[in-house]
UniProtKB/TrEMBL annotation:
The lineage of its organism: Bacteria, Pseudomonadati, Pseudomonadota, Gammaproteobacteria, Alteromonadales. The chain crosses the membrane at residues 6-24, 44-63, 131-152, 179-199, 219-242. Coiled coil: none annotated. It comes from the Bacteria. The keyword Transmembrane helix applies. This is DUF3307 domain-containing protein. Keywords: Membrane, Transmembrane, Transmembrane helix.
Length: 245
């Protein structure tokens, strides 16, 4: 297997994981899993979904049927076990990180065990740089939103009960900000990031000043800076990867 083929396969498996964990899993699924544990049918559906995504990615390569089925079964079982264990643990950032690392470790082990691909038709269909950029944009949207929310949970002010803004508007704005930041980084237009931060500061300054709530101000600043930082790190990391492939 050539390095490009290895990268495409690993990227496809990571793409499947991101889609399954952060885009195809509703919050209600997580709540049901945490409440009912092994009795939650949504936990089984979620694990099976990851197995199906793994199977689809593997079948893009001429590996036959046996090996992809074995890998899909392994992902399904491991994902079920890890998520079931997490449902009994406290809702802390450390367990979220460990859970994701375990999932990624399984993906890496399975990927490293793949046999040599006999054909290279996929290399002409997919481009490694395109796959890296797609993964980067998927990461800065929903996954970073979840990471930011988890990090701020210890200072949760229950802003949804007191804020008069539109429902989920803050999440949507954050996702759009990170989308723009990643775009600016990939284009090398770092001045645009400064303009974006300045514009948000101007719009939020009046609301925070009128509220006279220091906790709210610190909460918003912490969330904004963390979101911006993660987007920048992903953008810079993506730029370096693009130079290597």
């Amino acid at each position: 297997m050539t390095p490009e083929q290895q990268g495409l396969l690993l990227g496809g498996l990571l793409l499947g994981h991101i889609l399954g964990d952060f885009y195809l899993q509703a919050h209600s699924w997580v709540a049901d899993r945490d409440r009912r544990h092994a009795k939650s049918p949504l936990l089984y559906i979620h694990a099976l979904l990851h197995g199906i995504l793994t199977l689809i990615v593997c079948l893009l390569f001429p590996l036959g049927w046996a090996l992809p089925l074995v890998f899909a079964a392994a992902v399904t079982l491991s994902h079920f076990c890890f998520d079931l264990a997490k449902s009994y643990l406290p809702k802390k950032q450390i367990w979220f990180v460990i859970d994701q690392l375990l999932h990624l470790a399984v993906i890496y082990i399975l990927w490293s065990e793949l046999s040599t691909i006999e054909e290279d038709w996929l290399s002409s269909v997919l481009n490694m740089k395109v796959l890296i950029v797609v993964l980067a944009y998927l990461l800065v949207l929903n996954p970073v939103s979840i990471i930011t929310a988890q990090a701020l949970k210890q200072w949760d002010l229950d802003v949804g009960q007191t804020d008069k803004s539109l429902a989920s508007a803050g999440k949507a704005i954050g996702m759009l900000e990170r989308f723009l930041i990643l775009t600016f980084v990939l284009l090398g237009q770092y001045a645009g990031i400064g303009f974006l931060m300045a514009a948000k500061s101007i719009f939020r300054f009046g609301d925070l000043r009128e509220s006279r709530d220091h906790k709210m101000t610190e909460y918003v600043m912490m969330g904004t800076l963390l979101s911006f930082t993660l987007a920048l790190l992903i953008g810079l990391g993506t730029s370096q990867l693009l130079k290597l492939v």
